[in-house]
Amino acid sequence: MCGRPTLCEPPPAIVDRRGDIAFGVYGRPLRSVNLDEARLPLGWLRMGRRASELRLKEWQHFVLLLPEAMLTFAIVDSKFLRVSWCHFSDHEGKTHFEHERKGPALDLRTARELWNDRTHVSARRYRIEVDNALDRHEHRIRILIAGDGTKPSIEADLRCLHDLEQVSPLVVVLPVGRGRAAYSHKVPLPMEGTVRVGDRVLVARAADSYAILDIHKAHYPRHTWWNWATFAGRDDAGRSVGLNLTSNVNRDDARFNENAVWLDGKLETLAPARFEFDPNQPLEPWHLGTKDGAVDLTFEPRGERSEDLQLGLVRSVFHQPYGVFSGTIRCTRGVLRVKDAWGVCEDHDAVW
User: In this structure, is residue 334 part of a structural domain?
Assistant: First the structure.
């Protein structure tokens, strides 16, 4: 099928000793995610390393899918502002709420690599830790957020099972401007553990619970946008299916992109994505596909989280509806049919 990126062997590092960037699409994790060593162009010169590092946006975003509910959280360092949020919604639509912390001096750190490094955020009555431990085939999540009188507490102790022999991640280094790159590590993983929301206890079992990881570092241009869709669940034959579709400022979408399907953990790349939706009515159905017609999905939102952040010369406007995906995906192993698989979409426009 035309327009699908070829998976390559990952290099030792994103940035080599000469400062060159290894653009590509990989089916294995990178050992050294050293995008902080890249020096951005400034006319015919290059910025200093510290100035370039201050332009680096970094986050870890997790979509945690349990049979009864969805929990999403993010830990974001955009350098001028640090943000974390944790959002809960049950599938019946009876309960949804969010806890958030933000500030330029928030105690927050994103892991430099995923083999043995920690991401965390800590504030008053709010703490999230992610132990990224690919050497032990897992990511361990601990959440301890106190209730505030109007919203219940959230506590979680979860293991995302990242056995590289069972599930291949999609790892990309994309060109997003002259001398600029975006790195992402995306993968749906089986998950086990417990989530407590107020007095309610939810149990995650690897057979029916998923964690969708979105690990990201990028030197985005000042004006940035993207559309994103992801879900995980079972097809009509009972097989584990995950999907990621993205359309963004990537300059070579046919050669490098973040579009992929996972069938029982096996990764297959997809052609450039197409998104059809009304940005003024994000809770209306979305129609999603790929330019070669292999993906044909409808997304039905059941709710959303959104933000309109205006800070003078900086803005971040996004809608992230959550809901269910239904439709078909054609891959080399046949036609996959999914119905009411939970996930999220996102429409984001930023100047930063």
Answer: yes
Amino acid at 311: L
Task: Give CA–CA dist 162/13, Å, rounded.
Answer: 21
Q: What value does the mean pLDDT of the chain take?
A: 95
Laid out side by side, the sheet with 240-248 consists of: 266-269, 260-263, 240-248, 223-234, 334-351, 314-331, 295-311, 286-290, 273-276
Q: How far is CA 66 from CA 4, 21, 196, 219, in A?
A: 31, 38, 12, 33
Tens-place pLDDT, residues 75-105: 999 998 999 999 999 999 889 999 999 999 9
Which residues does residue 242 pair with via DSSP β-bridges, in sequence order?
Answer: 232, 262
Helices (H), the chain: 49-53
Q: How far is 70 from 86, CA to CA, in rounded Å? A: 11
What are the structure tokens assigned to 62, written together? 């997790």
Q: pTM value?
A: 0.96
Give the pLDDT confidence score for residue 2 in this predicted structure.
Answer: 56
Residue 8 is assigned to a structural domain of this protein: no
State the residue range of the domain holding 273.
Answer: 24-351
pLDDT tens, position by position, 133-153 = 999 999 999 999 999 989 999
Structure tokens at 272: 């450039």
Residue 1 has pLDDT above 50, yes or no: no
The total of other beta-carbon atoms located within 10 Å of residue 309's CB is 14
What's the number of domains the chain is made of?
Answer: 1
6 located within any domain: no
Q: Is 318 inside a domain boundary?
A: yes
Please classify residue 280 by burial: count the beta carbons closer than 10 Å to its beta carbon, then call 0-12 exposed, 13-18 middle and 19+ buried.
Answer: exposed
Strand (E) or helix (H) holding 21: none
